[in-house]
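Write out this protein's structure.
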Amino acid sequence: MRFLGEIPSSPAAVERLVRKLAGRYGKLHFCYEAGPTGYGLYRQIQALGHACLVVAPALIPKRPGERVKTNRRDAVTLARLHRAGELTGVWVPDVTHEAVRDLVRAREAAADDRRRKRQQLLSFLLRHGRVYSGGGHWTLAHRRWLATQSFEHAAQQIVFQEAIDAIVDADQRLQRLERQLTQIVPSWSMAPVVAAYQAMRGASFVVAVTFAAEIGDVRRFETPRQLMSFLGLVPAESSTGQTVRRKGLTLAGNRRARRALVEAAWTYRYPARVGETLRARLDGLPKAVRDIAWKAQIRLCARYRRLSGVGKKLPVVVAAIAREMAAFLWAIGREVAPA
């Protein structure tokens, strides 16, 4: 292993180094850790005709005794492990897929921002003894109740009104992003897959788009167990000899897709049926997809009742449903290919 030094991260400097090394050695193989810099370096090296691997940082083998970490040591270690074939690469989306994924994540960030603002307002009201007892929050009746609230001190009234205005702005931002999603997704190559995913109960448009944007083409997973493991929906294990110890979920992999599946899994607590909303989503889909979705609904609803009946905690039951839901989505993704 030889350390050649450090270079600037500008595209011109990278191209200069690549052409210099290619003139001496021919075919080159590069690798770097996935991080906040994205896939620009990967695409530049691929465009120059060389192989590049974007490494998953969590899967890099590390010795427990290492206590010194420098750029030089990391570079030499990566080169050694890459030569030995011990590195695991991440899936790199194309430019269009990455753009849609950015929009999906922006919509998720807007939803999180609105949730925080709502919680801040409810906490402010709770501190002053204003508790709504007419049902759920953020319904039309709850908003009417908020409109009747007033405070004696001007400063508190300003805080209350600013919080209300912030929530309204957050609502409008979220609606704008969702409208953009509905306009852009039909022209996306994954649009047929998104429509097929919606055959599943609980897989609304947002859930289907989130799953497709974060996972990509599920055909890259040979078995549904690999997809479950990628989503972190399998139990961790610490076994030795004849002793088998299983722990909670690994929670590894893509947390956004995992959270979307967990939210969708709650719909299977009701009996299996095809309502008007689901019937509209099934129109025009292949029979094989409809059969998989109905088979999934019958199995998952029964499994929810069975696990709940034996006393399992609800989060455990929902995680089990989400895990099997991922397997059925994998089966649907094998039936419908991207455009």
